[in-house]
Specification:
The chain contains 10 helices and 7 strands. With 292 residues, it is of the alpha+beta class. Strands 1, 2, 3, 4, 5, 6 and 7 form a 7-stranded antiparallel β-sheet that branches. Helix 5 packs across helix 6. The radius of gyration is 20 Å and the shape is globular.
Length: 292
Amino acid sequence: MLSVEIKDDRSENVRYNFRNYPIYIRKALLSSYNNFEAPLHWHDDIEFIAVLSGEMEYNINGEIITLKANEGVFVNSRQLHCGFSRSKTECEFICVLLLPAMLCPTPAIERDYIAELTNNRSIAFIRLSPDVKWQEMLLSFVKDMYAAKNDASAPLTIISLFLKMWAVIYDNAEIARDRKAPNEDLTLLKNMIGFIQKHYSERITLADIASSGNIGQSKCCKLFGTYTGDSPNMYLIKYRLDKSLWYLKNADMTVTEIAREVGFSGSSYYAETFRKWYRQSPTEYRKTCTEY
């Protein structure tokens, strides 16, 4: 199973392909994620998704789009996002993460061409269609990056393609600037998600979560529902379940010990919730992990 490692500041700890270059390229199946769903997260990197087969739903700041074969998406820096499938159907895709700093040889270029887009809150994402020539070019570049990732000159090739992609996006981004810019509520949500991800192993109440965002409980529930599709409590439960998977696979601990470690009040409730979500018991899941 694939997992997204989240840091205390709510951002993803990206494991780049190259030691000295912030480049991440991977081909994956949506079924590789627990329950066909990646956790909601953000990062400073630009993200490109190119769907090869099947389809997935993609959540960017609470707006959900469907990506089908040969389609994709550009996700701007520092946006909350995740891919998933409510119907648990398969999707094969290429995911590319690239840090914009690689495109900044001079302060002038960073100011005029890079920050101009990364700081533009009206361009949270651009859906990429093969029927639009400049978007089809971006999808083609994503595939070219994947094809070159094992070459000796891979970083050079990928960075040069990234530069071409950025020029294409810069020249055509005005078309995408009709989307409503996110407001400060997104920052509040990031703060509350960060609180959950830092304190998930402790006893957390709705009041605690709302307090971490300096808002009332009603608005807290509204923000989680709008952006994540879950209540604060459900987000917390799902995060605890996801964390428990690592212990089941790697730790010599009993189910009861793992339940306490990730913040569940008891092993029975943990096992019941685990089965409801993953359709198997923690013990059964642990057994399947040891079989491979």
